[in-house]
Amino acid sequence: MSSASSASLVSPSQRERPLKEEQKLFENAWRNKTRNFDNKDSQKKSLVVPGHQHQHSQHDQHGTQKSFSELPEVLGVPGVDIGSPGVALSELDSEDMSSDASDSPRNKKLVGKAVQKFFWAEMKHRLVKKTRHLALATRTLVQAHGSPKAGSLSNKFDKRVAGKLVTFEKQLSQQTQNTSLLKEAAKRELLNISAPLRAELMQKLREIMKKNMTSDPDMWERVKVLQRSMIDSLWEDVEKEIELNVELAWLQPLDPNQQPEQGSKWSCCESCYRFVRRKVLRHYLPFDRSIFGKLKDPIYVALTLTMLIPNAGFRVSVLSIILTFILFPRPPDEFQIINFILLCKGTQFLTGGLVSMGQGATIYFGCFNWHETDMTACIAQRGPGNVSSLIGELADYWGSIVLVWIAFLNLPFAQEHRQQKRLKLQSQKIEKISQVSESESKSQRLKIDRGGRMSSLLNYDVACFAFSLLVLLVLTGGHLMMSKEDHQVTAYRHFQEDIFWCKVLYSLLSMPFALFTIQPLQQVLTHAAPTGFNDFGECVPFRMAEKAIGSVGPVGSVGSVSMAEP
């Protein structure tokens, strides 16, 4: 018991080390910011000193004019006399003072108040948590002084003290949760208030990058304009990704294994549906496994191999089931819908494009080598278009775009479950946060601009599908005209081959979607926080499983997923 209590007393400090490091980094950045601001003021004051202004005026003016005359004309503006430093410096100082006085001091004051509020919330949370650990250790010591039989207490006074400590520990546990919610609220407020300072810093970085990329004097003006516009278009994605990562790193993660609340009793069919949904999504889209961890799961491998079968619509059937499980029960998760679109198009490029093209080329090569005399009859009987039925080919061809657009049309009604669940947990204890959650939940019911740049890729996908349909119509019309003269191959067999190769063409054009299935590119494209499904079928934030060194155990023991203590 004493070793367990000592372990419990040591572990919170280890968990609080990243928080202390973040606070130190924030304080150092804050001091550097204020020190730079104070240095500006001191430099401005040092330019004009009342006591020594007339003594060194001639010497300083002569030296300053000499130094300014040696400067190249690139530093000056045409039409402005740079030899009079007093005017130039005064203009620069007035501009700096006006910009700093309008934005920086006000933002610094607000951020300072938010930091102070977060500091006191953090101190209160630590005090309550340490008191709780002290009560737990005291109760453990009282039980250790009892009878040796299972640590039972024989003295009435000891029993009374132990009972009081249990009650006190429960109250402290509740207070720990409350102070944790207050600390998270202070963190969120600090993030919101310091957003203008971060935006100002990112704006300066963007201007520096544009200046460095266009610093070549021999560069064409059109190339400079193109590079500036490219930086401006990509910088928005960079800013959103940085803000998302800052929020994920700063705010406390939710417990991914928290059991959901069941409102009403489910029927038999609904219970069976939820059971199958929970099992499939937990194995195929887990919240705590990367691709390397999922490859160890036989169910995931079986589903993936099924989607690699190029015939009879196996891929579309499996993807239809997964899309149904993601959309129902509603509302769906934003990241999961975007991930499904990229997954559908990525497997289409792999299965319907590369694998099907290899299958057709192999069949043609076999007919050319082993059926030289009747090559046309071999292709007509064993061609790639005759391997599966026409219904299966059409299902694979048309289903690739129908499933994607069903998912995309549900994207405006999706929610970011990571933010919604955090606000829901905080609103249970704090009235202000509940009001914020209600307003944010209303605004998140219908949001058209979800998915980042996904709409541009889907417009490209529609253009590719229309192009493949145009090729199919041209080939079908040509074969109908040629079939009147040559009846060796029927028009139906020509149509089957045309369907097959137009499907291959459309699938190969889906290669850009396959590139964005890579996790870093996917986050920059969509700006959605990664999520997954837990053992209860709930969509939770993605969190890699962490195991203790040298220990392997089941879930709940040492080596399982480590949860942050509130």
Automatic annotation (TrEMBL):
Keyword Nuclease: no
Annotated stretches, region: Disordered: 1-67, 85-107
Compositionally biased intervals (Low complexity): 1-13
Membrane-crossing residue ranges in chain numbering: 299-328, 397-414, 457-478, 498-518
Keywords, ordered alphabetically: Membrane, Transmembrane, Transmembrane helix
Transmembrane found in the keyword field: yes
Basic and acidic residues composition bias: residue spans: 14-25, 35-44
PANTHER family xrefs: C2 CALCIUM-DEPENDENT MEMBRANE TARGETING (PTHR40849), RGS DOMAIN-CONTAINING PROTEIN (PTHR40849:SF2)
Protein name listed in UniProt: Uncharacterized protein
Lineage: Eukaryota, Sar, Alveolata, Dinophyceae, Suessiales
